[in-house]
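Researcher: Structure prediction, please.
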Amino acid sequence: MARILIVEDESLVAMEIESALKLEGFLTCGIASSGEEALQLARSSAPDLVLLDIYLDGNCDGIGVCRQIKEELAIPIIFLTAYSDKKTLDAAIDCKPESYLVKPFRRLELVAAIRLALSKGGEKIPVCDGVYYDRDRFQILRDGQRIDLTKKEAKLLELCLQRRGKVVPFEDLEYALWPEGAVADGTRRALIHRLRSKLGRSCLRTIPGIGCQLA
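Model: Predicted structure follows.
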């Protein structure tokens, strides 16, 4: 199920949106009432989509939040606002959100906008605590940062994800990653070490002489 962050400084409106999302089978990974809180939650929880009010309390408005989230995390954003004047609309469009809803909106409109936005976005797969894998972009999302993977690192991660909770024997790993023939132990160890450093040492462990396993 898609995980959605709600950024809305009117608590009643935020609760109504959360209720509507639950009825449609979506998960809410947090409600933020300020731009600063929104950025913190987006970085820590890596939502699949952000519902973002343009006018927020605090020093950072929705436009600023949108720019930072797009730059750092590339998460789809839907703007929510009670204002539809040209100046606001132009500023919102410049930030390139996936959609723009003017309050009050119907639940059907909200759900349609969310599903359309999610259909354009990449799938983020939980790997371990606070670490996600963006399969479409071959990237790790960790502590608010995007870390690129090489093709072999991504293939190793996919193999470990397929057997989550189980040990991937070195023989299976080598056959999947180097089908052309035998590979030196040092080459295999270097690949596992690089992936572990990108995921975090506690995320991927090596069992000497046997294989590797996701935490």
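Model: The longest strand covers residues 27-32.
Researcher: Thanks, that helps.
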